[in-house]
Input
Amino acid sequence: MTRKLIIAGRAALQRKSLTAIVAAALGLVAVAALAAGTQVFDPKTRKWVDYDRTKARKYYAAHNEVPEAFRPQMVKFRTAEVPGTIIIDGNQHFLYLVQPGQRAMRYGIGVGREGFGWAGIVRVGRMAEWPTWTPPAEMIARDPNAVKHAGGMPGGPDNPLGARALYLYERDQDTIYRIHGTPEPWTIGLDVSSGCIRMRNDDITDLASRVKVGAKVIVLMQGAALYKGV
Amino acid sequence: MLAKRAVRTSIRATAIGFLVGALSACVSAPPPPPQDQMSRTQVETAPADLQLLCANAVAKASGVDSTKILPVSSSKLDPKTYQVELDASGKKTRCLVDTEGNVRSVEPT
Output
């Protein structure tokens, strides 16, 4: 009887392990399916080319500029949202600032790397010029380089928040996420951050000059595990 | 005899020329995308404005506050239609929208 129970127990354990392996495999497939690699169109070769961190850095070194797609431009944008609303398409790496007449100013952005993406409806709680960067406790725990700035890194050209920061709030609560500048402009168009939305310093400065505190911010991110404000 | 050979060679050269021309026409590069579509991702999601048009349509159809409706997933069904999945205060809804911004259908899933 005891032996039968042990055998039955082992079989159940094996089934559970198998189920766990299958679930893990399916999970990996799902994650792989959502990991959307960026491609840019090369006007010289007239081909779509993969755009990863290494290629992005080389492109920036050669052109002192991000690819055309990620530079600011006015685009058609059919929406019921009021002008001044910020809409972030995390998958395609664009931030739209809604303008009158079914148009939007579009900027290139860098977003959260795998596992750090989020989506939701929040608002601009406050803004700051050349802000101090204080890494959150979670970042200090996983990144030894952040420890030395635990007390706050003063604003400046090397500060990870860049020239401006728009602090995103969920009702009256700081979400700890920001839309900010960056000293690494070549990362625009990539999934690189810890959940913040980064822009070129010129772009965040332009955006901050056009946005008001209280502006609605809609963050779209397919596959995000975290939702804010909805 | 020599004249015949010369004519044959000439015909062959012309035929090869036409063939090469036809082939190169077949493999010529496609026209470049419009200036605002010079980047893409391997997973093709619906444009942000179309996703939000769906959110607006769901708000109208369900009476749920639009600030509680968020597109969570989207995909291209055919060259002119996107499917958008939305979360409306916990209720899952599916919306079909075309590339012109016309919402074709809204239904719970």
In short: The mean pLDDT of chain B is 84. The first strand of chain B starts at residue 39 and ends at 41.
